[in-house]
Write a structure and sequence with these properties.
Distance between the termini: 25 Å
CATH superfamily of the largest domain: Bira Bifunctional Protein, Domain 2
Largest sheet: 9 strands, mixed
CATH topology of the largest domain: BirA Bifunctional Protein, domain 2
CATH architecture of the largest domain: 2-Layer Sandwich
Bound molecules: '5'-O-(N-(L-prolyl)-sulfamoyl)adenosine
Oligomer: single chain
């Protein structure tokens, strides 16, 4: 993409309504525009990051054997009356009436609808296990939408639902989700710690939230510092293996880590004092096992091996796709702007042309642009007729992890400059070596998708 042709409405001033860094930076970098309280348009740069996150979520869900589908945003109130949640959900539920005076709602989650799809189409235990998911917009009429996309009213969620014959099988689905989430967040450059939590209006007894530690997080968390040393890495797990998934769950949940809702002072006091931590965290996902809470009242049953009908055991599992954009920025920024992790960056590399209109500089930039693009990279080429300082400031603000600076003096020695946004360090390399180097840097990112 050539910046001269792109739509990147960066702001010079710091917007006064934004209280936290990610909200400020998303507005300043031209990623989002607020349309109403807690409702945003995703401008091209923001939409690109959102799409990358969505893609990682899709890849990791499908790696775990979960099947994508798409359900609507508007739902019939009658379905929610069956589960009892139409009245129970309260003011967060946006209720709508259509022209025929039928009660509808903008879905805050889809347990009822997926249970309806299941009961209409699945009859036998032989069709289990089954996990279906979608990535769809949700609406929750939050009393205090704030912090930009972190607590929106309209937000994008991945929500998945497992259907199993027995409690044990559903607990395996729970564990499988926990494992796949660890891999998902790490691909985004995040450490998200599973913590025991409270299930709220979704229901059930077993639930973990995934929290990214950040001072601006809305949740208070308590944990054993040893947990922050754990990494999932690029392990290959057999998601069908009960033992393998259980072992990962045990590894990542055996140390104390809880949100304030389930915090237990006595258990916390058992941890050696130097390892006790109290901090704040951003909830980027949550998994639930709730058994037959929806299947029983809604009649989602299958014929079991004994010929008897039995309600299926279910769980649901959510990732805050749009919230993640804010969470990643909270964890990765400095006073100049965003610093994207390589896995989610909107463009892999930026090219800054220091002397637009100079034939040799222009053609060196064009050649780099072509070669990097041919290697599967997305390149943002700043070909505007602007001062170098303004070009650098834009690149720093929008946070591409790598920048190539091309100027007439360097080119005389066949050198361009490769700069890391994170460390600020630069090296002089030939254009051919820059292409090679970036290929090496991004290889693990492209490999993680395989
Ligand atoms: C699990 C999937 C559920 O709704 N039903 C389907 C279950 N879980 S949840 O924890 O309530 O939400 C899942 C994730 O969505 C994000 N989230 C939000 N993101 C932005 N703005 C909001 N107002 C908001 N509310 C929830 C969180 O990341 C949460 O973990």
């Amino acid at each position: 993409m050539r910046l001269s042709r792109y739509f990147l409405p960066v702001l010079k001033e710091t917007p006064s309504e934004a209280q936290i860094a990610s909200h400020r930076l998303m507005l300043r970098a031209g990623m989002i525009k607020q349309q109403s309280a807690g409702i945003y348009s995703w401008l091209p740069l923001g939409f690109k990051v959102l799409s990358r996150i969505e893609q990682i979520v899709n890849e990791e869900q499908q790696r775990a054997g979960h099947i994508p589908l798409l359900m609507p945003t508007l739902q019939s109130a009658d379905l929610w009356r069956e589960s009892g949640r139409y009245d129970a959900y309260g003011d967060e539920l946006l209720r709508v009436t259509d022209r025929h005076k039928r009660d509808m709602l903008y879905g805050p989650t889809n347990e009822e609808m997926i249970t309806d799809i299941f009961r209409s189409n699945v009859n036998s235990y032989k069709d289990l296990p089954l996990t279906l998911y979608h990535i769809q917009w949700k609406f929750r009429d939050e009393i205090r939408p704030r912090f930009g996309v972190m607590r929106g009213r309209e937000f994008l969620m991945k929500d998945g639902y497992n259907f199993d014959l027995t409690k044990d099988a559903a607990l395996h689905a729970y564990n499988r989700h926990l494992v796949s989430y660890l891999r998902t967040y790490e691909r985004m450059g995040l450490q998200a710690i599973p913590m025991r939590a409270d299930s709220g209006p979704i229901g059930g007894d077993d639930t973990h939230e995934f929290l990214v530690l950040a001072d601006t997080g809305e949740s208070e968390v308590f944990y054993d510092s040893e947990i922050t040393d754990l990494r999932f890495g690029n392990r290959h797990i057999d998601y069908d293996s009960v033992e393998e998934c259980q072992a990962v769950l045990d590894e990542f949940t055996s140390r104390y880590a809880r949100t304030d809702e389930t915090h237990d002072e006595a258990a916390f006091a058992q941890i050696p004092e130097e390892r006790r931590r109290t901090a704040r965290g951003i909830e980027v996902g949550q998994i639930f096992y709730f058994g037959t809470k929806y299947s029983e009242p809604m009649g989602a049953t299958v014929v079991g091996p004994d010929g008897q009908r039995t309600p299926v055991h279910m769980g649901s599992h959510g990732i805050g796709v749009s919230r993640l954009v804010g969470a990643i920025i909270e964890a990765n920024h400095d006073d100049k702007g965003i610093i994207w992790p390589e896995g989610v960056t909107p463009f892999h590399v930026g090219i800054v042309n220091l002397k637009q209109g100079d034939a040799s500089v222009d053609s060196a930039c064009e050649a780099l642009y072509r070669e990097l693009t041919a290697q599967g990279m997305e390149v943002l080429y700043d070909d505007r007729d602007e001062r170098a300082g303004a070009k650098f400031a834009t690149m720093d603000l929008i946070g591409l992890p790598w920048r190539i600076t091309v100027g007439p003096r360097g080119l005389q020695a066949n050198k361009v400059e490769l700069t890391s946004r994170r460390s600020g360090e630069s090296e002089e390399l030939s254009p051919a070596d820059v292409v090679l180097r970036l290929g090496q840097i991004y290889q693990p990112v492209f490999d993680a998708a395989k």
